[in-house]
Amino acid sequence: MQIDWLQFTPWSALLGGALLGLASGLLALLAGKIAGISGILGGLLNAQSDMQWRAAFLLGLIFTPLFWMAFKTPADIQITANTPTLIIAGLLVGLGTRYGNGCTSGHGICGLSRFSIRSLAAVASFMTAGFITVLLTHHLF
Amino acid sequence: MQTIVALLTGVIFSLGLIISGMVNPAKVIGFLNLAGQWDPSLALVMAGGIATATPLFMWAKRRQQTLLTHEKMALPTSTIIDRPLIGGSLLFGIGWGLAGICPGPGLVAMAMGESKAFIFVIAMLSGMFVFRLLPK
């Protein structure tokens, strides 16, 4: 392993992470909800009764980038995967996060912050799968 | 009130994804790429997130009611580690590693006008629909 010092952005990572934690903690404390994006999306698709807060959270999530781009330069976004890979990846992410009941936000930030053993197992599983997948796709095939 | 809290926290969450750099799939892949040039940024995103959220969750756990909306506090309490949890997380991890995109950054990248993120989000929503059709 070699650390990629050119790409490493410690301060913006910490600051952005702190904002993710702040948003997740506040949503739990003030409104009793978990800021898990896959859970919020899945609940909307299932047409559950508590649609309003889910829609409001997603509205905030989706409209903020538009305001950001109006005042700041657009964020750097490089997607290297081709279309078939994106479709397979999307299907796996959609299916997997619903089966596993969460993703990087719900299990990662919210789950680990409330010391959930279930979330720890989930995070260990998806991290391991992610590491192995990149190892296979970038180094062996 | 709950709607306003959700809207504002959605805005903060989105800013967090943009500022942290996690809307860029290349950075996520850089973190998952242990055997290559490794970018540790995502570890610091998680560290910053957990350090900030932990005291707030500890406070929330001690309360019977939510602080602003005064509803019954109902955070998840399950400790069951079962096959759907692990299997689902493994599937998610494979998809995450293939494209470098997880649900939140996918939505934000799509909102920034990335056509490839749009394809990913449509596939992700399809996957969520398929989940409803499959036996649990």
From TrEMBL, chain A:
Localization, UniProt: Cell inner membrane
Membrane-crossing segments per the record: 12-32, 53-71, 77-99, 120-140
Keyword field contains Nucleus: no
Pfam families listed in its UniProt record: Sulf_transp
Sequence similarity: Belongs to the TsuA/YedE (TC 9.B.102) family.
PANTHER family, per database record: INNER MEMBRANE PROTEIN YEDE (PTHR30574), SULPHUR TRANSPORT DOMAIN-CONTAINING PROTEIN (PTHR30574:SF1)
Protein name, per record: YeeE/YedE
Source organism per UniProt: Iodobacter fluviatilis
From TrEMBL, chain B:
InterPro entries with a match to the protein in the record: DUF6691
Keywords, comma-separated and alphabetical: Membrane, Transmembrane, Transmembrane helix
Protein name, UniProt field: YeeE/YedE family protein
Pfam families cross-referenced by the UniProt entry: DUF6691
Transmembrane segments annotated in the record for this chain: 41-60, 90-111, 117-134
